[in-house]
Inverse folding.
């Protein structure tokens, strides 16, 4: 687990930072640009002049002039190329971007019009538009060669056209970046909004939309919102009509696992234009923990349904991936579909994994697996990983 936020060990007395978002630089990665840059000082290093903020690991080495923050121990990994945000006084620090990570995902809001049974980040109603402003600042600071960026929520489409503007900014300033946005898809039921999305005109942009049933009752129950299935499917169809790239996400839990084959059949028959389908293991955070009795299921218990769903999709040539699963709990035939999908900052391994021959290929666990995990985790002997899989699932 890598911390992404913390309280400064110390900060300049009475200071008022003139901006929230800062690109970190140091003496090895110094650009002529000073604006929006926070200089990370090494111990005893003389502070170069002109930066709006200095970062130190130890308050004893804070500069005599200028605003400064002494990073808490868990954020001392912050390095040149990373982007942080800080509260006006410098007391609270968040890491928005880690230059060395392939898993940078930017939270745009905690508000959402769904209330999913297993939501890992339960919605909050408070105004958090500043997250959108910070995201725009982040995009302005990132190098143009940035390979990818993800946006998540809450529900990012609640911003309407302001989200579209952010995505345009991304296309213009980060032309090489793959852009992935998570959305519940309902807003796209409005064809005008789907057209607006398409007007961003970014072939590297994809939206990931969850579908939890092959009919309204199950999907609406899982997301706790009447009419959601109809809107979401309409939204997916609208996006398809305007030629957008779509990923469908199915989180597998006690309610959805029995319906996996029907959901797969529904997608293959009715939404064959989607680019990919991700069948996802549960993250035991937020509502998933609160609703553990209704959502927890041991992955071993849904292998037949998962196998059938993958088989159905693969035979119809729908690109299919299994996210967030441990290989020792997956049927051997499903291994080729498994993706190491858990973001590095919340990815961990079990004590059992130390001696496992599949560890390099296995995605491991969410940090939150400490709250609930299958009792069948077992190290896989080398003889098993080396044996070729008996593939009967089309791929
Ligand atoms: S023992 Fe650990 S590394 Fe090995 S397959 Fe299971 S979860 Fe993955």
């Amino acid at each position: 687990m890598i911390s992404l936020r913390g309280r400064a060990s110390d900060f300049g007395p009475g200071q008022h930072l003139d901006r929230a978002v800062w690109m970190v630089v140091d003496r090895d990665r110094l650009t002529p640009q000073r604006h929006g840059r926070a200089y990370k000082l090494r111990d005893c290093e003389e502070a170069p002049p002109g930066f709006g903020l200095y970062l130190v690991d130890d308050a004893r080495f804070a500069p005599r002039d200028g605003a400064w923050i002494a990073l808490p121990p868990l954020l001392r990994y912050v390095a040149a190329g990373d982007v942080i945000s800080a509260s006006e006084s410098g007391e609270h620090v968040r890491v928005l971007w880690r230059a060395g990570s392939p898993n940078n995902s930017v939270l745009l809001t905690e508000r959402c019009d769904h209330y999913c049974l297993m939501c890992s980040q339960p919605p909050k109603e408070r105004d958090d538009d500043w997250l959108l402003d910070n995201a725009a600042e982040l995009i302005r600071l990132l190098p143009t060669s940035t390979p990818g960026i993800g946006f998540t929520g809450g529900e990012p489409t609640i911003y309407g056209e302001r989200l579209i503007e952010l995505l345009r900014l991304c296309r213009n300033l980060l032309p090489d970046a793959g852009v992935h946005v998570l959305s519940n898809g309902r807003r796209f039921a409005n064809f005008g909004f789907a057209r607006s999305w398409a007007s961003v005109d970014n072939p590297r942009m994809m939206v990931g939309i969850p579908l939890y049933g092959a009919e309204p009752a199950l999907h609406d129950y899982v997301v706790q919102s009447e009419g959601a299935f109809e809107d979401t499917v309409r939204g997916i169809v609208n996006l398809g009509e305007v030629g957008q790239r779509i990923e469908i996400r199915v989180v597998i839990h006690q309610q959805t696992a029995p319906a996996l084959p029907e959901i797969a059949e529904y997608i293959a028959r009715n939404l064959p234009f989607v680019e990919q389908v991700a069948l996802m293991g549960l993250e035991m955070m937020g509502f998933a923990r609160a609703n553990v009795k209704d959502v927890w299921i041991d992955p071993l218990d849904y292998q037949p349904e998962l196998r059938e769903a993958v088989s159905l999709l693969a035979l119809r040539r729908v690109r299919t991936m299994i996210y967030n699963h441990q290989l020792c709990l997956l049927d051997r035939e499903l291994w080729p579909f498994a993706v190491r999908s858990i973001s590095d900052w919340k990815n961990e391994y079990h004590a059992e994994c130390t001696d496992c021959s599949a560890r390099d290929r296995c995605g491991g666990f969410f940090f939150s697996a400490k709250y609930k995990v299958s009792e069948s985790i077992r190290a896989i002997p080398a003889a098993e990983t080396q044996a070729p899989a008996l593939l009967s699932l089309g791929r």
